[in-house]
Design goal:
The radius of gyration is 24 Å and the shape is elongated. The strands form two sheets. Strands 1-3-6-5 form a four-stranded antiparallel β-sheet, with no helix packed on it. Strands 2-8-7-4 form a four-stranded mixed β-sheet, with no helix packed on it. The chain has about 160 residues and is mainly beta. The N and C termini lie far apart (about 90 Å). It has a single domain, classed as Immunoglobulin-like, CATH 2.60.40. The protein is built from one helix and eight strands.
Length: about 160
């Protein structure tokens, strides 16, 4: 063995031990147990979907109708976990900065209902608006799209 490599190997091994064993941030406050996340895919290719959470919205689209430019309107999309395990919403994102979603950060138990509130700021927007909001959760498939629509008018410019 080349003696010039010994200090490098020792330093490398020590760094791997120090950084590899660092457990900070795992199972700490604010993190979820891995027991609530279930991957239905199996090695044989037959997914086990019977025990998954199911996000079931009362409606997936809301039309605000005609609104005045500059108004901020909001709607709460009510949903139920119709599955057999806890539903976890990981992220909710919108297709535009004018659309701001808020959602529950805690697991929703089977049979429980909750809401995803979507606020739309029509300032600087005119005409027909159609905004998508994507809900990422531990369901199969993991993405669900909900939509809001509005016809934004400016009474000062309309005759």
């Amino acid at each position: 063995m080349n003696l010039k490599r010994v200090p490098f190997l020792f330093l490398f091994s020590a760094m791997m031990l120090l950084f590899g064993c660092n457990q900070d941030g795992q199972n700490g406050e604010g993190s979820l147990s891995t027991d609530v996340v279930k991957n239905p895919n199996t090695a044989n290719g037959n997914p086990e979907q019977g025990a998954l959470p199911v996000i079931q919205f009362e409606e997936t689209e809301h039309d605000f109708g005609r609104i005045i430019e500059g108004e901020t309107v909001s709607f709460s999309f009510k949903f139920t976990n119709a599955g057999k395990t806890d539903l976890i919403i990981a992220e909710v994102s919108s297709s535009c900065g004018c659309t701001v979603p808020s959602y529950p950060k805690t697991p929703i138990r089977p049979g429980e209902t909750s809401n995803i509130k979507v606020a739309f700021n029509s300032n600087g927007r005119r005409g027909y608006q159609n905004k998508n909001v994507v809900v990422i959760s531990n369901t199969q498939p993991n993405a669900t799209v909900i939509r809001i629509k509005a016809q934004v008018v400016n009474p000062a410019t309309e005759k």
